[in-house]
Design brief:
mainly beta; 3 helices
């Protein structure tokens, strides 16, 4: 009898337009982002960054964003290689991790909710890159750069259908 009751546990409900829950359903809750402006020069000198970020709404006025990046050879590194005599070829490999909590300030005129509008955020970032000469025979000869960053920032995010500007 108990197993029979567990099978009929599904509930069907309907939200009305004047309901508090109706307005929260309309907003985008998950956003996948990238930043094309860090391709030429990354946060660590001599690197280029290829970033992919994911933001998810956790309440009506807040969200969490996590991003990961691959650090490769940057534009400056390519210019250094081209101008060097004798020619050198550098190998640049690295990664970056960022975690961010955003609190969206409510705009009473438009009733905007997360993830749209003006926000304040706290962010943690960790980057690490290893730069070596490709022709280097010695394995222990390299430059290792580590960069850790904590910051408090403000921003504004606009979402137009499937395109977000942060």
């Amino acid at each position: 009898f108990f197993l029979l009751l567990l099978q009929f546990n599904s509930v069907y409900c309907q939200f009305y337009q004047d309901s508090v829950y109706y307005s929260s359903i309309e907003t985008k809750r998950n956003i996948l982002k990238t930043n094309p402006f860090v391709f030429p020069v990354g946060t660590i000198p001599l690197t280029s960054e290829f970033r992919l970020a994911y933001e998810t709404v956790i309440s009506q006025r807040s969200s969490i964003q996590i991003s990961g990046s691959y650090l490769g050879k940057g534009l400056l590194t390519t210019f250094i290689e081209a101008g060097s005599v004798p020619p050198i070829v550098l190998k640049v490999r690295g990664f970056r991790f960022q975690a961010e909590y955003k609190y969206y300030l409510l705009n009473y005129k438009e009733q905007t909710k997360a993830p749209k509008g003006l926000y304040v955020a706290i962010q943690y970032s960790y980057s690490r890159a290893k730069i070596t000469d490709k022709k280097n025979i010695l394995q222990d000869e390299y430059i290792l750069i580590t960069y850790t960053n904590y910051c408090f920032k403000t921003g504004f995010q606009i979402i137009n259908k499937n395109l977000a500007f942060d």
